[in-house]
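Bench notes, afternoon.
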Amino acid sequence: MNKFIGKFLAAIGVISFRAEVNASDYLDLGAMLSNGNTKVMEDLTLFQTDRKKYFKLHEEELLQRGIESPDEISPAITLIDSLKSIKKVVYADYKEDAGDVLKRLESLANGKLKQGGSYVNLVAHMKEKTTANGISNYLENSDAQYLFSCVTEAKYKLVMIDEESDAYPLLLVPLEQFEQVK
């Protein structure tokens, strides 16, 4: 499955679908990220086998994303939306407040992020900043060290699925599972 992970800084993994995706690899990745969730697997399989039917089933959500036909749906969008449906993804706009995104990541981690000292440092750093406190600052510049330390201390790897937009579909993958994604 190593054809999915790209490089984005040193501390975040990016799942990228720039090349044509092998259907079995795509389904394996979905199974791993969703812990084999039946709904996710049904959605991913439907996308692979009948895009028109997939579009009809998810038309309202896809139209909200600006997707108006089955041909505009990408494997990345299908994976993101199916993982969002089971609350495995924190979907954030690049300028969304980092504190709000952190709260959602904390929920995704079932309270594990707060257990380490890095969380306290991250929150303190966020409170000290008076400008440019969007989540992109904690993913793309020197402020990233605070978020990545917090996530790593909680024994996760922060992973983003690249949907080629300015949004960040973020997942927390347990460190022991991350090698399977790579």
